[in-house]
Amino acid sequence: MPEESKQVDKGKGKAAPQSEEAKAPEKAAVESGDESGSEAGDGAADQATPGSGSAEAAAKKKKKKSKRSKAKQVLAQAIGGNTDQAIAANPMKAINALSNEQITEFMSLNPALANELLSANGSSSSDSTATEAFKQLSLQQIMTGLATSGKNRKDMASYKFWATQPVPQFGQEEKQGPFEERPLRVQKVEDIPTVPESLAIDGFRWVTMDLTDDKQMAEVEKLLYGHYVEDDEAMFRFKYSKSILKWSLMSPDWKKQWHVGIRHGDTLCAFISAVPVNIRVRENVLPGSEVNFLCIHKKLRGKRLAPILIKEITRVINLEGIWQAIYTGGIVLPRPVSTTRYFHRALNWQKLYEVGFSPCPTNSKPAFQVRKYKVADQTATRGLRPLEAKDLDAVHDLLERYLKRFDLAPVFKREECEHWFLNKEDPTTEQAVWSYVVEGPNGKITDFFSFYLLESSVIKSTKHSSIRAAYLFYYATEIGLTTPVDKSNLKTRLNELVGDALVLAKKQNFDVFNALSLMDNALFLEEQKFGPGDGQLHYYLFNYKANPVAGGVDAQNLLDKDNLSGVGFVML
Ligand SMILES: CCCCCCCCCCCCCC(=O)SCCNC(=O)CCNC(=O)[C@H](O)C(C)(C)COP(=O)(O)OP(=O)(O)OC[C@H]1O[C@@H](n2cnc3c(N)ncnc32)[C@H](O)[C@@H]1OP(=O)(O)O
């Protein structure tokens, strides 16, 4: 495994320092085996579960069983007596009886039971150190683990809100191969309430944010700046500037009503948003929405405000006659349609090291790491240049054809391509997106790629206040469009293009280049020195039951270079 495997993943919902999994994938694979024993698998991870029914599977099952009973022994030792009865009688006591070491051991031996205990603990959690440590471990496991394979999720009864929503539920997986994909709930606009659910808490009120008003945009920026997604150790937090927010939240046909806030007095303390997008799931195109920027002020966490916000954004979207949505998250909810993994490529290794983002591998030295991540001074692809307005028709056409390679992808109109990819020179706003095309000798656009800026605040460093991260956005190349596709040629071309993207990002002073395991990325991530992060990004569809889509990683969470990914949707 690459030595940068300890790198903390700062992707959305991301998390704990990983390392063990990356250093010893075999070990992680065993530990992540389905402890429940009863479920044949759920969701996306079903795609690659070899060996079931074989002697190998029987041996695995036996090993799991023995781990499960070992885990119970740990618990039995701590609380004494009959473990099952003791847990049932008092789950809190069972948790509190474990020392931190025992918790660690228990978590690794039996994450499923650990999560069961945590769920049983529910909202009545006390502040005891053991419980907190346990909870922390469990959440890390949830956020970094192989979610859809069954153990890093709560049991369905604990998803009190999500159990009521039109999303595929855990425990109701189809075992019989591909099924007909369809909406889960059919409604009429006239049945949708025209007013929001009452907040019923003194001093709180619903607001529609007017993001054309600079002051209100600044309020959203401030809320996210202080309270949006952080890593587990609270070292980094996503930092969306006003110009990036404007780019994200005001795409073609955006609707003011879909920028929903809650105020306490005058203060904006919660937010959720959506923009319209056509979502293609295999052959069906759904007029849909992309939901993002769900954020609740830290002081209001754990009060079940998130379900209220989600219901409200659903209502305002439904009022437009739109019934489906796509959203992503680092946490496991019922039920991902796909699970992708974050990868990171250092561009300014020294800075990433100084802020604690990239550790120096034990067998290496900082100087070596700096050298390792040095990129060329100049790009190498002939005909490569920044995207211009005159290229938009060609890029629209090329991207449309390329995205057809994937099972889950947006269907962009030309004006959406313009919005998402064309940088409008404006000295008063920060540039959000960088796009490049390759123009052949005959003037034909043969390739296109883009990346966008997302900074993270560095919360605990005195030396640096933020990390400038480039995120790989959409790309397309004619070389991927031959019939049949020549994978080896595609791999060579993507390596050339992404190699140049790294050079361009470095010139723009980015510190790190991030990408997920989606699209055809498995063809270049390792070659371009991207290291696996510890975060996963789960893709969800609201009110649509779809067969799993390959996320570009296999059952061991390793890049799946053979099957690549069916995800062609890049979310901000
Ligand atoms: C057709 C139109 C449909 C439109 C809607 C489509 C769905 C859109 C869905 C939203 C897509 C958003 C995409 C993004 O923006 S992902 C980014 C999410 N934001 C952050 O991580 C920022 C920092 N964190 C926070 O602000 C809070 O912790 C949040 C707001 C995340 C939860 O606040 P809090 O910690 O105070 O929790 P609660 O007590 O109020 O509520 C607990 C309930 O909320 C469920 N929960 C927790 N986190 C998430 C999450 N990320 N997606 C969906 N549900 C989530 C949780 O399972 C539990 O339900 P259940 O387990 O009991 O069932």
Automatic annotation (TrEMBL):
Keyword tags: Acyltransferase, Transferase
Top-level taxon of origin: Eukaryota
Enzyme class per UniProt: transferase
PROSITE patterns named among the record's database cross-references: NMT_1 (PS00975), NMT_2 (PS00976)
EC identifiers of the protein: 2.3.1.97
Cross-referenced Gene3D superfamilies: 3.40.630.30
Catalytic function, reaction form: N-terminal glycyl-[protein] + tetradecanoyl-CoA = N-tetradecanoylglycyl-[protein] + CoA + H(+)
Domain Glycylpeptide N-tetradecanoyltransferase N-terminal stretches: 187-339
InterPro entries assigned to the protein according to its UniProt record, in alphabetical order: Acyl_CoA_acyltransferase (IPR016181), NMT (IPR000903), NMT_C (IPR022677), NMT_CS (IPR022678), NMT_N (IPR022676)
Compositional bias (Basic residues): 60-71
Region (Disordered), start-end ranges: 1-74
Domain Glycylpeptide N-tetradecanoyltransferase C-terminal residues, every copy: 354-570
Biased composition (Basic and acidic residues): 1-12, 20-29
Coiled coil (residue ranges): none
GO terms of molecular function: glycylpeptide N-tetradecanoyltransferase activity
GO cellular-component term (any): cytoplasm
Function: Adds a myristoyl group to the N-terminal glycine residue of certain cellular proteins.
Family named by the database record: Belongs to the NMT family.
Designated name of the protein: Glycylpeptide N-tetradecanoyltransferase
Organism: Lasiosphaeria hispida
